[in-house]
Design goal:
The chain has 75 residues and is α+β, with helices and mostly antiparallel strands. It has a single domain, classed as Pemi-like Protein 1, Chain: D (Ribbon), CATH 2.10.260. Helix content is 44%, strand content 21%. The strands form 2 sheets. A two-stranded antiparallel ribbon has the order 1-2. The protein has a two-stranded antiparallel ribbon with strand order 3-4. It is globular and about 40 Å long.
């Protein structure tokens, strides 16, 4: 399957087709981890509870520290 990024505000987005979403048992509320091996993008659902908790805490901290900047970027 070949995909292209689409423009989403000031960012780019990748649309994941429904069959893949169903295969991975994920939805729009599923936390996803992005990583790379230097040549490819790897997108994985976060399934480790400790890891998910750390991610949520990190996002909360980032949002608290940088909320003004993030709001400006989203405009």
């Amino acid at each position: 399957m070949i995909k292209k990024l689409i423009k989403h505000g000031n960012s780019s987005a990748l649309i994941i087709d429904k069959p893949i979403i169903e295969l991975l048992h994920i939805d729009e509320n599923t936390a996803l981890e992005l990583s790379t091996d230097g040549k490819s993008i790897i997108i994985s659902p976060v399934s480790d509870a400790k890891r998910l908790s750390r991610l949520k805490n990190s996002l909360k901290s980032i949002n608290q520290k940088h909320s003004k900047t993030l709001k400006k970027l989203s405009e």
